[in-house]
Write a structure and sequence with these properties.
4 helices
Length: 110
């Protein structure tokens, strides 16, 4: 059985740079520690402005759903077979049972 993370996706310089992507292996990218110090600084910061700046400008952005020539739906080159969902408490205050939510998503994926 093939590892579902063994797919090629696009990496962009940051979330503000939609052009000039490069192809990366998603599984390898997720395990790479090149950005570890910035991620730790992001997680440890209590300052919303600093967290936003690190997320937007200092860390790369990827498109888990595939490879793109430009970060736009119409510029998809090859779909990875994956779907990325960003669900968090800040934007979804109505969710109270996160474990149930994980189970529900898992049921949909299977």
């Amino acid at each position: 059985m093939k590892n579902p993370l063994d797919v090629i996706v696009s990496e962009f310089q940051n979330t503000q740079t939609p052009a000039n992507p490069r192809d990366v292996n998603l599984g390898e990218w997720l395990l790479d520690d090149r950005h570890k110090e910035r991620v730790i600084r992001l997680r440890e910061s209590d300052l919303p402005e600093e967290r936003s700046r690190i997320k937007k400008m200092e860390l790369p952005a990827i498109t888990p759903s595939g490879t793109f020539s430009y970060r736009a739906t119409s510029k998809l080159i090859q779909h990875s077979g994956l779907c990325c969902v960003d669900i968090d408490g800040d934007h979804n205050p109505h969710i109270s049972d996160w474990e149930e939510g994980k189970r529900d998503l898992s049921d949909v994926a299977n």
